Amino acid sequence: MTTAPAKPVRTRFAPSPTGYLHLGGARTALYSWAYARHFGGTFVLRIEDTDLERSTPAAVQAIIEGMEWLGLSHDEGPFYQMQRMDRYREVVAQMLEAGTAYHCYSSPEEVEAMRERMREAGEKPRYDGTWRPEPGKTLPAIPEGRKPVVRFKNPLDGEVTWDDFVKGTITIGNKELDDLVIARPDGTPTYNFCVAVDDWDMQISHVLRGDDHVNNTPRQINILRAIGAPLPLYGHLPMILGADGQKMSKRKDAVNVMDYPAQGYLPEAILNYLARLGWSHGDDEVFSMEQVCSWFDGTHLSNSAAQFNIEKLNWLNNHYIKQADNERLAALAQPRMLAAGAVFDGAPALPAVLALMKERVNTVNELVDAAMLFYRTPQPDAALMTQHLTDAVKPALAQFAERCATVEWTKEALAAMIKEVLAANGLKMPQMAMPLRLIVTGQLQTPAIDAVLQIFGREAIVARLAKFL
Ligand code: GLU
User: Fold this and answer.
1) Which residue has its alpha carbon closest to ligand 1 atom 6?
2) pLDDT at 252
3) Would the pLDDT of 250 be above 90?
4) Average pLDDT of the chain?
5) Nearest by Cα to 276 from 216, 213, 319
6) Residues 192-205 pLDDT 10s
7) E strand or H helix at 104
8) Sign of CA dihedral 374, 380, 384, 389
9) Residue 160: is it exposed, middle or buried by C-beta count within 10 angstroms (0-12/13-18/19+)?
10) 45 backbone dihedrals φ, ψ, rounded to 5°
């Protein structure tokens, strides 16, 4: 897989719209997308919505929104399986005609009874082939009024083998496989059959999907062979486990991709995290999507389940927040700050505040919490004020306030001025910085006081000091 594939690369992401876009699905989408981008191929989005009871338009919307937020743009589609019913019926008819599929009139009760017999005999339960036509075999009389299903005539012998580009060679004996129902009595096609027809029609060259589909692959390969379709190459990705090493569940893990923007994660952090969760490029931990696309050639995919690790995601999110343009962060932070009661009128410019605060936060929400100190009226605790605004400090603060009127309003000049005032009054830095912090922000924990003062601006500082002195 290190050399360019011979045929044009066409990959697909084929979610069933029964819920939101979850992390595992997003990783499958990312790998399929990156693989197509790497080889200058085409990435197809296909919505597998034939399960009418569980599929909803809201889930389709949620999946598309998730893909858009991550920037995983598709080149073709979305194709909806429900809009391709005529095509599936056509292929079923062709297979009946060609003898690769047959009508089966066994009732569900009969099928269950034959399965039960096999279970009792210690065999693997499967359809016993009652209605499977063979040369020289006489089929039973068709029961009156019964509508047949259509079954695929799976090869009886031999095996199905494919070189999975994640798991290596996988071989499954045809004896393990049933004569799959490909159309129900009302003519609606079934899951594995639709996937095979779609992969054929959409000329999919590489199928990357979760390894919960490994059991479907030999069935799909047999159907593809029977309809004369070329076989895609398959890669089955191991699961993503929760932080506790168990299967991820929405009860205990944040599995919905679209919960992440609300929690203040940037899409590039999620993408970087997912890219690394099951794939590697040397020892690299931080990479852009341009780099992923240029490196992602189907090699270095891990064959063992990856475990979700929020600390690592937080570390990446911190990295991307530090890198992010401050205007972009401001656009993300402002609505959240307004909701938290921030007052922007006459307050410092948000991008400058975020630039000061973003070093140590893991999420945009933490950034918002940190930045709020510039956007609400400080209400210093009275007891803390008494403790820090002592008689020894008051004259120094008064001098400081006076000099604020004329000092050059830069961080450096402010720092120098504070030093002079401290020296003139025989004080140490915390003695003045603590009450200053309380007066200006209402809290004792802030970034460096000179930076805080500079950002607030002369007018605001003079006004706040005047209230207390
Ligand atoms: N629709 C399937 C799912 O959501 C994926 C099928 C496939 O990739 O072949 O799990």
Assistant:
1) 14
2) 83
3) no
4) 95
5) 319
6) 999 999 999 999 99
7) strand 101-104
8) positive
9) buried
10) -110, 125
211 lines ligand 1 (CB under 6 A): no
Judge if pTM exceeds 0.90.
yes
User: CB-based burial of residue 274 (10 Å sphere; 0-12 exposed, 13-18 middle, 19+ buried)?
Assistant: buried
Res 311 pLDDT > 80:
yes
pLDDT at 3: 53
142, pLDDT greater than 90: yes
What amino acid occupies position 66? G
Chain centroid to CA 86: how far? 33
Whether 18 lines ligand 1, by a CB cut-off of 6 Å, is no
pLDDT for res 66: 97
Cis peptide before 155 (omega within 30 of 0): no
Q: Is the dihedral of CA 114, 116, 118, 121 positive or negative?
A: negative
CA distance 194 to 182: 8
> Which of 45, 190, 191, 213 to mutate for ligand 1's pocket (most ligand atoms within 8 Å of CB)?
213
Ligand 1 nearest atom to the CA of residue 18, by list position: 4
- Per-residue pLDDT reduced to its tens digit, 457-466: 999 999 999 9
Q: Is the pLDDT of residue 38 over 90?
A: yes
Q: Judge whether 210 and 239 are in contact, CB under 8 Å.
A: yes
Per the listing, tokens 């089955």 go with: 236
Ligand 1: does its nearest atom lie under 6 Å from the Cβ of 195? Answer: yes
Q: Which two tokens stand for residue 44?
A: 């197809």
Of the listed ranges 96-100, 167-171, 253-257, 341-345, the one predicted with least confidence: 253-257
48 C-beta closer than 6 A to ligand 1: yes
One-letter amino acid identity for 425? N
Is the CB of 213 inside a 6 Å radius of any atom of ligand 1? yes
Bridge partners of residue 235, in order along the sequence? 208
- Considering only CA atoms, give the Rg of the chain: 32
Closest of 207, 191, 195 to residue 12, by C-alpha: 207
